[in-house]
Amino acid sequence: MRTLVLLLLALFLQAQDAFLVKPYLQLGDAPRPAALERLDLMWHATDAEAAWSVEVRGSKGWVAQAIPTYRRLDAPPLAAHRIYRATLKQLSPGAVVPYRVRFNGAVVFESEAQVRRPGAHRMVVFGDAASGSHEQIALAKAVLAAKPDAVFITGDLVYGRGRAAEYRDHFFPVYNSDETPLMRHVPFLGVPGNHDVPFKAWPDASAYFAYWSQPLNGPGLRPGEAGAAPVSAGVHDAMVAAAGPAFPRMASFSFDYGKVHWTVLDSNVYADWESPKLKAWLEADLKAAQGAAWRIVALHHPLFQSALSHSEDQWMRPISPILEKYGVDLVLAGHVHNYQRTAPLRFKPTQVGPRGRPVKGDFTVDEAFDGRTVTRAKGIIHIVTGAGGAELYDPWQTDVKTSWQPWTRALVSDKHSFTVLDVDAKTLKLRQLDAEGRELDAIMLTK
Ligand SMILES: [Fe+2]
Hints:
- The chain is α+β, with helices and mostly antiparallel strands.
- 15% of the residues lie in helices and 32% in strands.
- It has a 7-stranded mixed sheet, covered by helices on one side. A 6-stranded mixed sheet has the order 11-10-9-21-22-23, covered by helices on one side.
- The protein starts with a helix and ends with a strand.
């Protein structure tokens, strides 16, 4: 009896020690829906030999998946660790699939994965997220209660410098804890913001490229090429090695979810979307997506917004005519720490200056759209959803409409909040909710 108890205790302790970061789901390099879907499952463990395996429950019982692979990250201050990846395959679209992870033979983790839905679905979106604040935690709980099928973070994934150590402190413990088991159940997608890029002082900065697994179908930039995240040799070598093929290509990509095409752009200052290579990719991506019911562009830096903070970060505005040409419905951004919604807009740039200076142009505003009785938009609605955790900007602007640009229709800067998108082929409902689940704004778009 005593031996059995000790054995069980040993197994329990082994299970507790197995993970540095428990398993979390990623879309992986699977941009387009398929008859049989896949998802990447990742987790972090110590840098020691161990036999890991993953099983998915099918109609005839548990099915062993291909042996997990790993990349090693040895960038201080964290101890060298392994970033494991297993691809869950042969998944039925829209299904909730049980999976489990074994460590040296013993099952140490079990959960269920929400597979990409082929039609109607709920996507939750927020940005400027893992700051370690109480508000970040409260919002994560509200996101869990909203039951998303997937989550998209519009950049500034992790504060303050996108470091591996910061992911360990206040990203995974919030979005993938036993109390808020989001990432183990639904895939998180995201785009790097200005806080997620390689900072010279930190060898573990830019952990995005090593810790996330997203489509690699972007412009195909090579390390050191114009438009790619610039790294410092001798500082970021370990991070680049751990990222493998994801660096620097994973910064921009596209994917489809349900009937929605998402074009995800790295809007950081080093990426000039007016340059021929990036512009050609953007055009080709949107052109190929004309069969989608909806087109969404997601990026960190907004094109149009009303906050006084970051008011001159307008360098993404020149892409507006391309987005209009190819029928983009919605642009989702972060960077500015509040919620904002514009009227449907068209914009012709007339004066493009250096980065950080205003981009002037002519606006055409759809004044008729109200999202309730008039739901067909003539132009693009620009959303800022950067109230995901970091400190809010200028809360007073919420109640002072005279401080808003004339085309801003909603601005909430005194509450943290997130966006819920309920989308099918004909309707797109957008709601902005606070940590208590209260609705701060709501519109409907129809086709
Ligand atoms: Fe930002």
